[in-house]
């Protein structure tokens, strides 16, 4: 399966020989607890009988027969392994749809996610056509690796509106005659058609596009926005607003549009970072616009045949999202299981799969002789691939294909023909599934992790902001204040590391170098910059801390301590900047940028809650007693420290508060907007929330 990564079966077959006789015991794992007996029999035959016509395994496979668990019974009336064929692609589409619809309508399955389709590739045209057909008939398809991102309406609409803003450029672009641009210009033409329809339906959008187009046509100097910010401004108009309004408690298929827009913000932000684009200037406008649409998007767009494309959102913790049938590659399905598996790609055949490149590497750097006969490797890998596919099925396995007897790629292909012909076709018998009890897909029992700063605090500040940037992963553009704080924190961390290494004397000579290196790293990761005045202020904060707070850092015990506290249904994480003290009693210190708050300030109340909980986590992890909790404000030279006493009774109630917030997050309750307009001024969603008009 993973030969393309350099894997070889030799590691398994020769493992026992690496030990002296008697040192290594071989335990045969031959009982299968996943699949029904008839399915196990089928993939046993696949590995033995159906392979014999084409090649011999010889000693290059451990000879074994998989056995079902003793509690599994056989079906009397309906085979667990069958086929669905179609005399044409159209008939095949219809038969697949009718079969899945029958399973759902007759109550045999309770959720479409009990059905999984496995393919050699989900990016092939035939696979995408089947997915589109099923979706047109009301069966949602989850296929994040199908590379259909750029064909989704919401993406075409956003790109079309961007092109319309640069009207003169887009008019010339779609008429470009170069052959290498033909597919791209055709795509942009379709995007512009969608944008024109949206503007016909929404006068406000049309007015905004005209306003921006005139502004950019007559631009002198700089705008105060670039491409990503234009996209955020679009979110204030009806078509995009309805997408952003999506309820995240709905199924993944319903969330696809909003998650694709999140991906698009990251695509545009990465372009701006790569090209150092903060604003659009009259000097560089033509250059950055043409590079975006003719080079950057062309590279990402690719083709179904030549690579490229962008994958859509996929939740790694939920491999079979509720409400959708899954389309995935065989490689992607490894380690998974589904009640019903439908295996396609029966055109497939053994190929060398770029083995020439690996052979060159082996010849140049490996001193071992070849282990497997090179003329049979492609057969070994092919058979193992479809063994994995067939063994994903728990209750029902179906092989499916439209029949094609002519051409270079018949279906079923030569390798599948014998097995396919041995199976009964569902539509020849219209089998009943009354005997079957298709179990729900097993839910993930992984606990999610939540942190005070990035989760609890952000959600309480504004749940809409949390939804967009934390839950959905939209790219944040206005991150200046965050960048300032990160720069100060990272450089103070460098100071602490030097102190812990007993290298205090080296700090004055290295401090500004650390500061500059941290700044450059943050610029690359955050795609943002600080004005010289802000950078100088950040450096002043750091120097103030080192030069005036020796009493604080001279007894430092640990710095940047990662904390974790398992709750009943989630994990609470945190990080404390400093633990100081000697013996079994310590103090914890957290550094805060910005101005020192006044007593009773809401931010100060929240910071105390954070430290109280951190005290509990530190005591559990370090087996110490925390005596005092301190906040340190480097901006305040005279009185930088705010001190709290630990309150054990208060900690329990605070953890209950945090738990309530986590439960709201997990229920996807993201409707509460902040009433603090100063928060909105720094938020990219301010246009969507109508806190500011996009002009």
From TrEMBL:
<keyword id="KW-0238">DNA-binding</keyword>
<keyword id="KW-0614">Plasmid</keyword>
<keyword id="KW-0378">Hydrolase</keyword>
<dbReference type="InterPro" id="IPR000212">
    <property type="entry name" value="DNA_helicase_UvrD/REP"/>
</dbReference>
<dbReference type="GO" id="GO:0005524">
    <property type="term" value="F:ATP binding"/>
</dbReference>
<keyword id="KW-0234">DNA repair</keyword>
<feature type="domain" description="PD-(D/E)XK endonuclease-like">
    <location>
        <begin position="454"/>
        <end position="690"/>
    </location>
</feature>
<dbReference type="GO" id="GO:0033202">
    <property type="term" value="C:DNA helicase complex"/>
</dbReference>
<dbReference type="Pfam" id="PF12705">
    <property type="entry name" value="PDDEXK_1"/>
</dbReference>
<dbReference type="GO" id="GO:0005829">
    <property type="term" value="C:cytosol"/>
</dbReference>
<dbReference type="Pfam" id="PF13361">
    <property type="entry name" value="UvrD_C"/>
</dbReference>
<keyword id="KW-0269">Exonuclease</keyword>
<dbReference type="GO" id="GO:0043138">
    <property type="term" value="F:3'-5' DNA helicase activity"/>
</dbReference>
<keyword id="KW-0227">DNA damage</keyword>
<feature type="domain" description="UvrD-like helicase C-terminal">
    <location>
        <begin position="27"/>
        <end position="400"/>
    </location>
</feature>
<dbReference type="InterPro" id="IPR014017">
    <property type="entry name" value="DNA_helicase_UvrD-like_C"/>
</dbReference>
<dbReference type="GO" id="GO:0000725">
    <property type="term" value="P:recombinational repair"/>
</dbReference>
<dbReference type="InterPro" id="IPR027417">
    <property type="entry name" value="P-loop_NTPase"/>
</dbReference>
<dbReference type="GO" id="GO:0003677">
    <property type="term" value="F:DNA binding"/>
</dbReference>
<dbReference type="InterPro" id="IPR038726">
    <property type="entry name" value="PDDEXK_AddAB-type"/>
</dbReference>
<keyword id="KW-0547">Nucleotide-binding</keyword>
<keyword id="KW-0347">Helicase</keyword>
<protein>
    <submittedName>
        <fullName>DNA helicase UvrD</fullName>
    </submittedName>
</protein>
<keyword id="KW-0540">Nuclease</keyword>
<dbReference type="GO" id="GO:0004527">
    <property type="term" value="F:exonuclease activity"/>
</dbReference>
<keyword id="KW-0067">ATP-binding</keyword>
<dbReference type="InterPro" id="IPR011604">
    <property type="entry name" value="PDDEXK-like_dom_sf"/>
</dbReference>
């Amino acid at each position: 399966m993973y030969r393309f990564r350099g894997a070889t079966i030799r590691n398994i077959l020769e493992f026992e020989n690496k030990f002296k006789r008697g040192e290594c015991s071989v335990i045969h794992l031959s009982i299968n607890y996943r699949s029904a007996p008839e399915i196990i029999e089928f993939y046993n035959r696949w590995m033995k009988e159906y392979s014999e016509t084409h090649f011999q395994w010889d000693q290059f496979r451990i000879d074994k027969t998989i056995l079902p668990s003793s509690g599994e019974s056989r079906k009397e009336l309906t085979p667990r392994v069958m086929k669905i064929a179609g005399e044409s692609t159209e008939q095949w589409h219809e038969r697949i749809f009718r079969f899945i619809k029958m399973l759902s309508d007759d109550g045999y399955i309770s959720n479409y996610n009990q059905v999984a389709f496995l393919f050699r590739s989900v990016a092939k045209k035939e696979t995408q056509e089947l997915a589109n057909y099923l979706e047109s008939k009301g069966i949602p398809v989850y296929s994040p690796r199908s590379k259909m991102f750029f064909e989704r309406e919401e993406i075409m609409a956003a790109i079309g509106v961007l092109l319309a803003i640069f009207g003169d450029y887009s008019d010339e672009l779609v008429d470009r005659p170069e052959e290498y641009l033909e597919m791209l210009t055709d795509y942009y033409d379709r995007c512009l058609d969608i944008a024109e329809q949206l503007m016909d339906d929404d006068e406000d959008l049309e007015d905004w596009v005209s306003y921006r187009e005139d502004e950019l046509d007559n631009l002198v100097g700089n705008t105060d926005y670039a491409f990503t910010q234009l996209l955020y401004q679009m979110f204030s108009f009806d078509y995009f607003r309805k997408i952003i309004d999506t309820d995240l408690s709905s199924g993944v298929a319903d969330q696809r549009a909003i998650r694709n827009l999140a991906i698009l913000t990251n695509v545009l932000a990465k372009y701006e970072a790569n090209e150092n684009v903060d604003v659009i200037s009259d000097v560089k406008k033509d250059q950055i616009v043409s590079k975006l649409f003719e080079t950057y998007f062309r590279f990402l767009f690719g083709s179904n045949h030549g690579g490229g494309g962008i994958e859509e959102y996929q939740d790694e913790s939920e491999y079979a999202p509720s409400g959708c049938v899954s389309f995935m590659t065989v490689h992607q399905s490894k380690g998974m299981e589904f009640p019903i598996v439908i295996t396609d790609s029966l055109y497939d055949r053994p190929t060398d799969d770029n083995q020439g490149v690996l052979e060159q590497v082996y010849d140049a750097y490996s001193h071992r002789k070849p282990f497997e006969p090179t003329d049979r490797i492609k057969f070994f890998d092919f058979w193992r691939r479809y063994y994995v596919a067939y063994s994903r099925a728990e209750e029902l396995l179906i092989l499916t294909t439209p029949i094609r007897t002519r051409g270079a790629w018949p279906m079923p292909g030569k390798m599948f023909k014998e097995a396919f012909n041995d199976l009964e076709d569902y539509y020849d018998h219209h089998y009943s599934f009354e005997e079957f009890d298709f179990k729900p897909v097993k839910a993930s029992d992984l606990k999610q992790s939540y942190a005070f700063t990035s989760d609890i605090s952000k959600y309480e500040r504004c749940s809409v902001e949390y939804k967009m940037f934390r839950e959905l992963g939209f790219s944040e553009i206005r991150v200046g204040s965050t960048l300032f704080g990160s720069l100060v924190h990272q450089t103070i961390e460098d100071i602490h590391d030097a102190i812990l290494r007993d290298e205090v004397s080296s700090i004055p000579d290295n401090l500004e170098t650390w500061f500059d290196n941290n700044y450059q790293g943050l610029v690359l990761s955050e795609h943002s910059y600080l004005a010289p005045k802000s950078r100088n202020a950040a450096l002043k904060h750091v120097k103030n801390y080192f030069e005036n707070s020796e009493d604080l850092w001279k007894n430092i015990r640990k710095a940047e301590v990662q904390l974790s506290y398992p709750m009943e249904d989630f994990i609470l994480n945190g990080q404390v900047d400093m633990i100081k003290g000697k013996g079994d009693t310590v103090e914890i210190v957290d550094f805060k940028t910005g101005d020192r708050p006044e007593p009773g300030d809401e931010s100060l109340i929240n910071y105390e809650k954070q430290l109280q909980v951190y005290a509990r986590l530190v005591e559990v992890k370090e087996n110490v007693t925390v005596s005092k909790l301190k906040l340190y404000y480097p901006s305040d030279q005279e009185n930088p420290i705010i001190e709290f006493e630990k309150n054990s009774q208060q900690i329990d109630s605070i953890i209950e508060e945090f738990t309530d917030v986590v439960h709201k997050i997990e229920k996807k309750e993201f409707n509460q907007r902040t009433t603090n307009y100063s928060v909105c001024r720094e938020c990219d969603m301010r246009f969507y929330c109508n806190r500011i008009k996009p002009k």
